[in-house]
Amino acid sequence: MCGQTDKKKLTMRPLHTHYDNLKVARNAPPEVIRAAYKTLCHKFHPDRHGGSASSTQTFQLITAAYEVLSDAERRQQHDAWIARAESQHTKTPAEKTIRPWNGLERRRLPWPVSSSPKTDRHGRMRITAAVAALWASVALVGTMLFLIYQS
């Protein structure tokens, strides 16, 4: 049981709040929050990005964050939630957060990849133009010898 809580503590993600969505400090005044909201709305508005799904989702996150932080009562509730969450999950900054793999992102290799010009970043052999020309000439010479000795 004790090992489970340690593992759970290592896999905990840092707390993501509406302040992070708007990229403002937690003690920011309403004027700064409004200015950040307007700036991010202009940057991520779906009409500026052809209605892409990612910009729409980002725009909705920004709008939801502003709705909470612009209302004084809802902002107090959000700050109380942050305080409760941080008091439950205190951790030292030296701890490394381990995120579970979601299957969409690429994992970094646990060993250093060779920086040799003969291999690519995954360690596979890379065929250069010179190597391809050499193999083509070997194949051509082999075919010519075959035809000469066949007759």
Structure commentary:
There is one protein chain. With 151 residues, the chain is mainly alpha-helical. Helix content is 57%, strand content 0%. It has six helices and no strands. The longest helix has 22 residues, at 129-150. The radius of gyration is 28 Å and the shape is elongated. It starts with a helix and ends with a helix.
Summarize the SSE layout with pairings.
Blueprint: H1 2-10, H2 18-22, H3 30-44, H4 53-70, H5 72-88, H6 129-150
Mean pLDDT across all amino acids: 78
- Report helical residue fraction: 55-70%
Label the CATH architecture of the domain at 2-88: Orthogonal Bundle
| Spatial extent as radius of gyration | 28 Å
Query: pLDDT below 50 for ≥5 consecutive residues: which ranges?
Result: 1-11
Envelope shape = elongated
The number of E-state strands comes to: 0
